[in-house]
Predict the structure.
Amino acid sequence: MFLTLALLLALYSVLTYLFKLLWIKPRRLRSRLSSQGIGGPTPSFLLGNLVEIKRSLSTTFSRKFMVKDGQVTHDWAHSLFPFLNNWAKQYGPNYMFWAGILPVLYLGEHDLVKEISLCTSLDLGKSTFLQKFFGPLFGQGLLTSNGLSWAYQRKIIAPELNLVKIKVQPSPTRKNHLPDTN
């Protein structure tokens, strides 16, 4: 009798935790952002907007890839992620969508992205999922690191990315493709 009661209590606790994690918390976050004027497509329960993303990608890849009006276009972002462009037209430059149970805030205003990057801590960065997924490919470099590690690497590389140094550095493509002005 006591064991059955303990198991029922444990099951109730687990179900309550999952309900809060998968239903209450996402709805609360969505309502907070919508009260601040950030909308987005309505997610399904566990899949989020993945069904819409897959549908958008399947229609895109069935057409010719990166060809517009018979000419090759270099607008690769809209070719690879057409759903982002469609949602930006529908919901504005800033919106939120769901990749499964993971919320993604899309910011299309460059000034807002710059302000956020200047006014937040170093912990605003790449997700741990991306670090684990791309870690074997990129290692712990500038593309995948966060926090103090990212700040240290950025500090080391920043002087080399100075605009004056980049302009002074000779470019083999500049020699080969530009006419001589002498």
The mean pLDDT is 79. The longest strand covers residues 94-99.
